[in-house]
C-alpha cells in the first residue's frame, strides 16, 4: 500500500460521487443536525440499512488517545503552529426514528445509533482522468485500487429519484424537469410524486413540460403489470 502523493489524483479520487466509491464519499461535509442518508446495510433487520434517513447528532472521538491529543510533532508550513488537525471519529451518532431496536443502547436515547467508519477496497476507473500519453506510460492500465475508510453516510438535504424509492416522506420539494442528459422516463415522475401521503406536504420546484406526463410506460413495466394482473385474477 502506498499513499497517493499526486495532488490532482487525490482531488479526483476525493471528488468522486459516492455511487462510484461503494457508498463511501471522499469529501463529506459535516454540519451538526443535518439530515443524513445511510449508504450501507448495517443491520437490515433493525431498519439500519442503505437508504435509511436520519439526523446527524454529533461525531464522537477518542479523547483518551494521547497520540491524537499531543500532535505537536505534526508540522506543515502551510498552516500556523496552533492548527488543530482533524481526527478520525470513532463513530457518528445518528438519530434514526425508523430503527427497530427493542431497547436503547447503553447511555443513549432511543433511536440514537452509533454509525462506525467502514473500510472498503475500491477499484476506480481513471479513463476520465488520465491522458492518452499517461495511459501508454501505465501500459494501458486505466484503473487503480484504493483503500478508503469513511463514515457510510451522505448529506440528505436532497436525493435522486433512485434513492427515494420505497420511502415515505413527510414533506419535500420535487423537481419534475428532466436533466438534459437523461432519457425521459415515466418512473421519474411517478416515484417522487408518490413519496408523500398528501399533496399538501409536497411542492413542485418549477414549471415542467406537460409532455413528461404523457409518456407511455416502459414495455417491461407493461409486461410486469400484465403478469401481476393475471396473478391477481388467478387468486380470485
Automatic annotation (TrEMBL):
It comes from the Eukaryota. InterPro entries: P-loop_NTPase. One of its GO terms (cellular component) is replication fork. GO terms for biological process: DNA replication. Transmembrane segments: none annotated. This is ATP-dependent DNA helicase. It comes from Adineta steineri.
Amino acid at each position: 500500500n502506498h499513499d497517493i502523493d499526486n495532488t490532482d489524483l487525490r482531488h479526483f479520487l476525493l471528488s468522486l460521487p459516492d455511487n462510484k466509491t461503494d457508498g463511501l464519499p471522499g469529501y463529506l461535509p459535516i454540519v451538526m443536525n443535518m439530515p443524513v442518508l445511510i449508504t450501507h446495510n448495517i443491520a437490515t433487520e433493525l431498519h439500519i440499512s442503505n437508504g435509511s434517513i436520519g439526523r446527524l447528532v454529533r461525531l464522537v472521538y477518542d479523547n483518551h488517545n494521547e497520540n491524537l491529543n499531543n500532535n505537536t510533532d505534526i508540522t506543515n508550513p502551510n498552516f500556523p503552529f496552533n492548527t488543530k488537525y482533524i481526527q478520525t471519529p470513532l463513530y457518528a451518532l445518528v438519530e434514526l426514528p425508523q430503527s427497530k431496536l427493542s431497547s436503547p443502547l447503553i447511555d443513549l436515547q432511543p433511536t440514537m445509533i452509533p454509525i462506525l467508519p467502514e473500510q472498503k477496497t475500491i477499484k476506480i476507473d481513471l479513463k476520465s482522468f488520465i491522458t492518452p500519453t499517461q495511459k501508454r506510460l501505465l501500459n494501458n492500465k486505466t484503473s487503480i485500487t484504493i483503500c478508503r475508510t469513511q463514515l457510510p453516510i451522505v448529506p440528505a438535504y436532497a436525493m435522486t429519484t433512485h434513492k427515494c424509492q420505497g420511502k415515505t416522506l413527510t414533506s419535500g420539494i420535487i423537481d419534475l424537469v428532466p436533466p438534459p442528459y437523461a432519457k425521459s422516463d415515466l418512473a421519474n415522475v411517478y416515484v417522487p410524486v408518490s413519496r408523500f401521503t398528501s399533496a399538501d406536504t409536497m411542492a413542485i420546484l418549477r414549471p415542467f413540460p406537460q409532455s413528461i406526463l404523457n409518456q407511455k410506460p416502459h414495455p417491461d413495466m407493461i409486461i410486469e403489470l400484465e403478469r401481476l394482473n393475471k396473478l391477481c385474477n388467478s387468486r380470485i
